[in-house]
Amino acid sequence: xxxxxxxxxxxxxxxxxxxxxxxxxxxxxxxxxxxxxxxxxxxxxxxxxxxxxxxxxxxxxxxxxxxxxxxxxxxxxxxxxxxxxxxxxxxxxxxxxxxxxxxxxxxxxxxxxxxxxxxxxxxxxxxxxxxxxxxxxxxxxxxxxxxxxxxxxxxxxxxxxxxxxxxxxxxxxxxxxxxxxxxxxxxxxxxxxxxxxxxxxxxxxxxxxxxxxxxxxxxxxxxxxxxxxxxxxxxxxxxxxxxxxxxxxxxxxxxxxxxxxxxxxxxxxxxxxxxxxxxxxxxxxxxxxxxxxxxxxxxxxxxx
Amino acid sequence: xxxxxxxxxxxxxxxxxxxxxxxxxxxxxxxxxxxxxxxxxxxxxxxxxxxxxxxxxxxxxxxxxxxxxxxxxxxxxxxxxxxxxxxxxxxxxxxxxxxxxxxxxxxxxxxxxxxxxxxxxxxxxxxxxxxxxxxxxxxxxxxxxxxxxxxxxxxxxxxxxxxxxxxxxxxxxxxxxxxxxxxxxxxxxxxxxxxxxxxxxxxxxxxxxxxxxxxxxxxxxxxxxxxxxxxxxxxxxxxxxxxxxxxxxxxxxxxxxxxxxxxxxxxxxxxxxxxxxxxxxxxxxxxxxxxxxxxxxxxxxxxxxxxxxxxxxxxxxxxxxx
Lengths: 304, 322
Hints:
By secondary structure, chain A is α/β, with parallel strands linked by helices. In chain A, 34% of the residues lie in helices and 22% in strands. Chain A has nine helices and ten strands. Chain A has helices spanning 14-25, 72-80, 119-129, 134-147, 163-176, 193-209, 221-227, 261-274, 282-285; strands at 28-41, 44-57, 61-65, 87-92, 95-96, 104-107, 181-185, 213-217, 230-235, 240-246. Helix content of chain B is 68%, strand content 4%. By secondary structure, chain B is mainly alpha-helical. Chain A binds chain B through residues 80-82, 99-102, 104-106, 108, 110, 112, 114-117, 125-126, 129-130, 157-160, 173-174, 177, 183, and chain B through 214, 216-217, 219-227, 230, 234-235, 238-239, 241, 313-316, 318-319, 322.
């Protein structure tokens, strides 16, 4: 189908390979071992996640991608401690995780800023929960707010902010706790394309400058390739790890790379994994069964 | 057509001018209807007020008789060629004209009580307001915290709500006699009726409001390290505060509806005493005046509370607009 010859997505330049070697030498922050998750529903027991295993190293940027219903949201909720696995372990710094805690920051898809608190107090919230004094919490919070570029809005309420700004505050709020890992559940899913691109660049900038590991869930292939060191591809029914792809696109990333051979090769591979060509796709392939309801000659696409 | 919105566009906001006009009309239309019935004789006026009894021995001037009775007596008198009774068409005594009620509204406050032991109208009103205040405050002191706990913890909910659900069907006034037996004949039983009428609804409504708090906010707080009581006091309570306040406003309105029954229990008192007393003397203009006064107090309290709410919860201000 593709008109240009793409390299294999597995091919890495020397520079990229060296980066990955270095990355894998770093200590493991998050380790998921034989994780299973079953729900009991009216149709019986549904397996949402089956035998998930992976490791994330310090300062790694991991994206999790998969078709809808692959349990990626369930996975991140288990990592955050908001749900418990049916079996298996989640280890953070080699210690098992059972409940939510400030060592794992989370940014949700929906806006979860506390509407009754100003931007500053939202960011202070976690710090105060850790028992910091108001004064320390405030000065810390202001630093983080400045970092996400919202110092002018420190005293604004969330409803006065745009969607992108809200998510920036949410990131600042999560980072203020100095978590070991930042879990992000499709955080830019509700934003328009332009804001989303800006947010992605911002996030990479933050990640570059802070000692933080990121696990980022998305269903957007471009987003995953643009952001990630490695992409964990899940498949649906049941949610299983299909492949852990090392993204061969060199860093630092920029939007121009979207047409680079490495980028396209990785994207092609992801597409194969997520939308595999199947036999019962024939109905969809034909498109719609349309009857012409416009006048003859009144064409919007003229054949040449 | 751009500056004024169409009146009947589904779920579209109206212009400011339209809102003002319609608000005024909502009061003026009933008043207009009332005036029509009161001042246009042929519309209703089923009675005749006797001015001169003439030869009819049982007529007295100022008396109200049915129109057909008057017509019959008038015909009989005419047949016997005796003095004819005279009168004009009028409404029954229970429908005084607007101006009469308006006068009563004013004079009710300036009229001395007939007996020295009785209260001025403003004193009666003040007494009623105090009964409402204590009944509602006491109910809220227990009901609101219990409701919040029910909405937050499933265990509390399951322990409390089934019984409360049952109890709220028991009509509060039914406990009147019991309340008098326990608390005597003065304000105690009245306050307790308002308490019973408010409390059980309150727990259920507050519990529901609490449950409507977006669970994502609680989850966000959990991931930020909030625990147990921190969740309750730093997330749940501030999160529901504006809705809780709205609930309380509605519940306060309900508390007023229990007032009349409550005040009839034991020695009648307050505005109810005034109303029943005036009804006994057939001073229906005063009765209407008192009822309207309750309405005015209710509406103004609510407007005041709404204004206060806007100040208390600045983060809610523009959410409503968007």
